[in-house]
Amino acid sequence: AAKRAVVVKEDDLFTQLDMPSKATEVAGATATEFKTWIRNKCFEICELKKASNAMTSRYVAKWKVVKDPNAGLTVRTIRMRLVLRGFMDVEAFDLSTFSGTAKRQSQRILACESACRPEWKLASLEIDKAFPQG
């Protein structure tokens, strides 16, 4: 009868208490995330004193439910995400940025308009690793 104040998702945050018992999986997930950043050429190694814009980063650990490509089943796995501390970016105010994220109301208006116009084709897509790919 009581209402929950917090939404519980299947991809809840991975807590510090989980770390010691899952050290091998955490190391593997961390390496996978780091390789993704390297593969997408997101940064280069240089001396700190020669860097014009140095930012620190940290990993955010989450439980994630994904489909196992081999078994075709869903499994709960650990996802490590490398996040930059953007508040340290000295070039932040000089960058022209665009966020493709739309508000729900905008999405509804677009869907409604496209339903009224049969010549419009409406499509949606998800870009995997969108941030590291620029």
What does this structure look like?
A hairpin with a 6-residue loop joins strand 1 (57-67) and strand 2 (74-84). The protein contains 2 helices and 2 strands; from the N terminus they run αββα. It is an alpha+beta fold. A two-stranded antiparallel sheet has the order 1-2. Helices cover 22% and strands 16% of the residues. It is extended.
DSSP strand tally: 2
- The proportion of strand residues reads 15-25%
Percent of residues in helices: 10-25%
Q: Report the structural category.
A: alpha+beta
What is the 3D shape?
extended
Q: What spatial order of strands do you see in the largest sheet? A: 1-2
Write down the overall mean pLDDT: 77
Q: From the alpha carbons, calculate the radius of gyration and give it in angstroms.
A: 20 Å
Low-confidence stretches: none
Helix count, per DSSP? 2
The biggest sheet, with number of strands, parallel, antiparallel or mixed sense and barrel status, is: 2 strands, antiparallel
N-end to C-end Cα span: 46 Å
Order of helices and strands: HEEH
Task: Please give the structural blueprint.
Layout: H1 23-39, E1 57-67, E2 74-84, H2 104-116
Antiparallel strand pairs: 1-2
Defining key terms:
alpha+beta, 22% helix, two-stranded antiparallel sheet, 134 residues
At a glance:
The chain is of the alpha+beta class and 134 residues long. The protein is built from two helices and two strands; from the N terminus they run αββα.
